[in-house]
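DsbA family protein, pasting as requested.
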Amino acid sequence: MGVRSFRRAAVAVVAATALGLSAAACSSDSGSGSGSGTSSQAELTVKTSPDAATLAKLPAKVDGAEIVVGDPNAPHTVTVYEDPRCPFCMHYEGGGAAAVAKLAAEKKVKIRYTIASFLDANFGGDSSKRAVNAMRASVEQGKFPEFHAAVFASQPAKETDDAFTADNLLKIADKVPGLRSPAFDKAVRENTYKDFVKAAEGAFESSGVNSSPVILIDGKKPAGDGRAIFNEEAFKKVLADAGIS
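Structure tokens follow.
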């Protein structure tokens, strides 16, 4: 498999929305991927998802390099490609993802996550890898949907901040009832699921996707210019137009 590198797009989500720009993503270019970006041990402001109650009801399981949330027999599939350090992924998780979660709770969709870690190579550190490892560990505790959302909600102000340390990830886990345990804590501190992290990045790279977040509805890109994924009501309409409501 060839090595690819990824760069964050220069435009912010807020600017994209305000100015009507169609592109808002952590996207690829032809750079070397040498990981020369500035990195720091920033503190996090720990937050939880406003949809935690809905997310707490959703089952999750590992399927190869993916994590599948919701009823596996749901008639529709929303596929999500993202990186924990990507600010645009955070905006998706705080926007359109809420509409998807509600549909998953109604057993109308299942969500297939491929959670990559390509931004570590750009900005230095291991934040994405550590976060993906912790998310994988949360599956074993039956708490992935809540913890996954809380990690994105707690994302540092800059993706160059190497802030998803083991200590900070455990602070986020404190906000998810029933998640902390000796087994979970050990997995977070010892990177128990490093093989899964590598497999998930490999699946991302081999998928043909070259940016995050990328959201597919039943295998197809949503209609429109792509900005609807950052707004719950707008994405709810997109989903309805795709036959999911």
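Note for the archive: The first helix runs from residue 13 to 19.
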